[in-house]
Design a protein that fits this description.
This protein is an alpha+beta fold. It contains 3 helices and 10 strands.
Length: about 160
């Protein structure tokens, strides 16, 4: 009976579980995440996908071209919000919801006065609804996202003053 050389045998914990990798990749697609990591004991699996930005070129009518100047202003506003001391950032990647359900009123709106710990919105990640609460009391100065918008980790969601 022929035997396999000892160097070809791998310990059980170092074998790659291809089904687990496929499940994690499927989970990435189902949730819209770009990266997921799983570990058990000494085994660690990280699955990530790259997202390529698509640039489109569209000819605008002369009147609509004036509105195109607003895009850099929106980017500048987001940059300003990130450095604001009242910036409330997303603690995770997910989908933001401004109301507890589709027929309910939003948790807050611009101009609302909030107290520390009050729910401002919900970020859903992996089928779990995570309340985003006010880190301090204040007035909602700006809401920088739309309802049901995908958000990234660290993205500014709103600004409190």
């Amino acid at each position: 009976m022929a035997s396999t050389p000892a160097k070809d045998k791998k310990p059980a914990e170092s074998r790659i579980d291809q089904d687990m990798i496929r499940d994690l990749a499927s989970l990435l697609n189902d949730t819209g995440l770009t990266e997921i990591e799983w570990s058990e004991g000494n085994l660690k699996i990280r699955v990530a996908k790259t997202v390529q930005a698509v640039q489109a070129s569209v000819a605008l009518p002369a009147m609509a071209a004036a509105g195109a100047v607003a895009a850099p202003a929106v980017a500048a506003a987001a940059d300003d919000a990130a450095s604001h001391p009242g910036a409330v950032k997303s603690p995770m990647v997910g989908t933001a919801y401004l109301a507890p359900d589709p027929t309910a009123a939003p948790f807050v709106s611009v101009g609302s006065n909030v107290s520390a710990g009050q729910t401002l919105m919900i970020v859903e990640a992996m089928k779990t609804m995570n309340p985003i609460t006010a880190p301090k009391g204040g007035r909602v100065a700006r809401i920088l996202i739309e309802n049901q918008q995908p958000v990234e980790f660290g993205q500014v969601l709103l600004v409190l003053e």
